[in-house]
Amino acid sequence: MFYKRLTTNSFTQAKRLENYLIFVINRENMDTIWIVVIVIAVLVIWVVLIYNSLVRLRQNRENAFADIDVQLKQRHDLVPQLIGAVKGYMEHERGTLEAVTNARQRAMGAGSINEKIAAEKELSHALSGLSIQVEAYPDLKANTNFMHLQSELADIENKLAAVRRFFNSATKELNIAVQKFPNVLFAGIFGFKSETMFDLGEANRETMDKAPEVKF
Description:
The chain has 216 residues and is mainly alpha-helical. It is 78% helix and 0% strand. It has helices spanning 2-87, 94-109, 113-134, 138-141, 144-179, 184-187. Helix 1 packs antiparallel against helix 2, helix 1 runs antiparallel to helix 5 (144-179) and helix 2 runs antiparallel to helix 3. The longest helix is centred in the N-terminal third of the chain and has 86 residues, at 2-87. It is rod-shaped.
């Protein structure tokens, strides 16, 4: 009888010990699970904040280019008038006039912001070539209609210089955000990359902050 009672008590104690150990283990597992859940939640929130920040900076760049686009469209509209005004005086400069016309067509057909930047640089280069050729035609430089178009183009270029600085500032801010740590770990995954600045090329980079003077 005594042996049976002792055996029963030992079994009961062992069972209690087993239940206690199971409780402790389950509690430790739950604590671990909660820690993991909290860490994952913090990481998700952190990544979301990075993504939202990059989206905001990209949107700022796109909004800045919208102001540039207005001036570019005005320049596109002015180019055919400019070509018409000089064509009668520059019959032997057909290649130069065609270069400007073709560059304008490519600029108008460009899709993305970066494509437009590349096309507009080409158009600016073509217009620069035209301005050099005009120097050889004094009668053209004295033409009233041409002088008026020259003034309009100069005004557009001055406005472009101002909005281009704002756009480049927004682009620089985006590029820094994309390249810095820890954003760089996720930027590529989300489709963000360093974007193109709208400058005048390496040779004229130092004069970007000056309003351009268009002289024919």
